[in-house]
Structure formats: structure tokens, C-alpha cells
Amino acid sequence: MPAWSADKLLGGPFVVHAGQRSATVVWILKDGEATLGTEPGKADKTAPVLRAEKTSYTGIQPGTTYYYDVLGRDEGRGSFKTAPSGPADFQFVVYGDTRTRHDMHRRVVAAVIKHGIPDFVMHTGDLVANGADSAQWPVFFDIERELLSKTAFFPSLGNHERNDRQFYDFFDVTTPYYSFDWGQAHFIVLNSDIGNVATSQAARESFWSEQVRWLEEDLAKSQKADFRFVTAHHPPITAVARRQGDNPQMTALIPLFEKEHVTAGFFGHDHNYQHYLKNGVHYVITGGGGAPLYDVDTPPAGITQKVISTEHFVSVKVTGKSAHIEAFALDGSVLDRIDLKP
Ligand SMILES: [Fe+2]
Predict the structure, then answer these.
(1) Ligand 1 centroid to 125 CA: how many Å?
(2) Spacing, Cα 100 to ligand 1 middle (Å)
(3) pTM for this entry
(4) How far is ligand 1, taken at its centre, from the CA of residue 26, in Å?
(5) How many domains does the chain have?
(6) How far is the CA of 164 from the centre of ligand 1 (A)?
(7) Each residue's pLDDT tens digit, 13-66
(8) Ligand 1 centroid to 197 CA: how many Å?
(9) Local confidence band at 342 (pLDDT 50, 70, 90 cut-offs)
(10) Deepest in the core among 3, 162, 333, 334, taking most CB within 10 A?
């Protein structure tokens, strides 16, 4: 029996970096278990030792469903679609803040599956309560297994990931912010977790100004796309009274979003659903993936379209030159519907 078949699969397989002609399949294995105790030989705490394996495929075909098998056994099998090479109809799902209440996270994933497997999933961050704790990731991957084995995944980094190496390993993240095209839409994923990006104020500021410079260029280059979608963990606007003004670096991006015609931004961090429309840009906060709910006690005047404190997910359907966003509660009822035009 080959050595690898004895390794226990604790995550995946799932696909990241799904492009027109390439994709990476990742799976996470348990190499062993490390114990910690107050006396020699006593195990008060145990943590799995995790190892991410990955394989990248290049030269594959756009707009095609591929089936992979990374272990030569059932649990190593999955499928995904590559990005189309030109305009095409597609649907993606966005949710976030899946940490802490695992039963609720499980219900959110079940609701997404019941709605229909999307072309890809975007996560707005705070996947787990502590990204440095190797015992928490297998729980996340167990809940997500069925969904992630059938679609491609584009996660954003939340503050609860603690900028930990495991996030970068598990999702093969080589650049902290990036963009990609899918059909006639352009997608940007930002790293809004400025608090954990570096220990010195100067390094944090330099990270942020580099990211903003990149964002300005990326948005300027994507003006021909019908739709521009931005995803980040921290919201620029919020109805959660005690958190208003908490993310000035994100709020400062609003004029740029307006100038470069961002269609919609998707954010998390606040555990509820919020939708604002300000100078043509939609701001959707989708943080209802399982974390304890927050009140929506102070909706900003003049721009609020909908705020509701409930678990949910968001689905975006692009059909020809039109698109719409729908927010769904876990019973399948529609919480909000937004029509988008290029
Ligand atoms: Fe957060």
C-alpha cells in the first residue's frame, strides 16, 4: 500500500485559482497529532499536524467542467468549472463569517447546496475563529466538504484568520490581494485586515498604500467589463452602531469605487445582512454564515436599502448584459433583490 493512502484527509479536495486555462486542486492531510499538557506524557490539548498538498493544471479548456481524483479513492474526487473565455451566463455565491457556530455554518452550506451548485463561491472572511489553531480548520473543511468539492473557491482574509500562514497554505494564496475575470465581469479580492498585516504602523501604512495603488490600476484596466465586483472582509459602511467608523481605510475607498464604477462590493465582519446604495455603487454586507448575529441598530440615513440580522447567503446571477443579486434566508425565502446594469 503506498504511504500516502494511510494519510487521513482532513480538508478538501477543493479548487482555488480557477481561471480560463488553469486551476489548482488542494487537499489537506493530517500528518500526526501533537499533544500539550502540564505534566510529561499528559495530554490536556491535542492538535492535528496538517499538511496542504496541491497540484496545478495548466493548458486546460475554458468554460469546461472538469472532474479530478487526487487520492485514487472516493473522498479524493471532485469537480469544478473553468472560467469562460468570453461573455457567458453564470452564477456565484457569496457568504462569510462562518466561524464559531458550526451547526449554523452547516445549515448555511446546506441552503447553498439546495439552491444549486454555483460556478464558484466567494467567502468574505473569518472562515474560522482563530486561523492559527490547527484544530479549527478540519471543522471548517468538514462542513464545507460537499459544496467545495463541486465548485471553485475564492476566499478573502478575515481578521480571525490572524494573517496566519495556514490560510496562505490551505488556499495557495501567494499574493494578499488579486483579481480575476469571469465572463463579462471583473472580480477584485482585497486584504482589508490591516491590523494583522504587520506589527509596525509604518509597515501597515505602506502595505495599505501599495494595495490602494494596485486597486486604482486594476480598476482603471477593467473599465470595459460589464460588471466590477470587489470583495473584502471589513465593510466601509455599517448599521452596527458600536462599529461605525471602525474601518476608516475601507471608508476612504468609497470615492475610488464611485469614480471607477464598481458595481457592487461584498463585505463581511458584521454578522448580518446589509445593503446600501450610494452614488451608484451597491454595498452588500454578507456576514451571516454562522458567527453570532449582530444587531443592525443604526442604519445610515439616505443610503440604506435593507438591513436584517439573520443567517443567509447571497447569490449573484449574470445573464447576458444584466445581473441580479439575491440574498436568501436559510428557509429559501428572498431577503433582498438587487437588479444591476452595466
Ligand atoms: Fe471579522
Answers:
(1) 7
(2) 12
(3) 0.96
(4) 25
(5) 1
(6) 14
(7) 999 999 999 999 999 999 999 999 999 989 999 999 999 999 999 999 999 999
(8) 14
(9) confident
(10) 162
